[in-house]
Amino acid sequence: MRAALAYILLIATLLPLFSQWGTIAYYHANKAYIAKVLCENRAKPELHCDGQCYLAKKLTAQQEQQDKATTEQVQKTPDFQLFYQSNLPFLFQPVVIAQTTVLPAYLPGSYPSPLYSLFQPPQV
Question: Measured between alpha carbons, how far is 103 from 99 in angstroms, rounded to an integer?
């Protein structure tokens, strides 16, 4: 499911790049029809236009449409501020912790082991 979604998003992102290629492919597939019916210079065969004027018009129109859409999208994008500098100074004030109680030591200074009397080193 994730792979399919990733491919769909990739195709949707790259689709505007392929729109001009689609127009060029359409022109090459229907070159004879465009040269006979849609070409502006069909009355002047010595120019050898073969419908290239029609292709240029279509590509220019697509480019203008994409530019217009991009301009509208940029204009509609909301502005938001990422940084704000406050004019109020920040003051560091020390924190004083008062120690009122003294805790007793956990272990006394000398710890008498119960086994100390049994195991003593040899005496010389």
Answer: 10
Angle, in degrees to the nearest 10, between helices 2-29 and 52-76: 150
Per-residue model confidence (pLDDT) at position 61: 92
Alpha-carbon distance of 77 to 111, in angstroms, equals 75
59, 58, 62, 38: which is closest to 50 by C-alpha?
Answer: 38
Cα torsion 56, 62, 66, 69 to 10°: value is 130
SS3 99: coil
User: Cα–Cα distance between 52 and 48 in angstroms, integer?
Assistant: 9
pLDDT for residue 25: 86
How far is residue 70's CA from residue 16's CA, in Å, rounded to a whole number?
Answer: 11
Both tokens of residue 11?
């195709």
pLDDT at 27: 87
Residues lower than pLDDT 50 in the chain: none
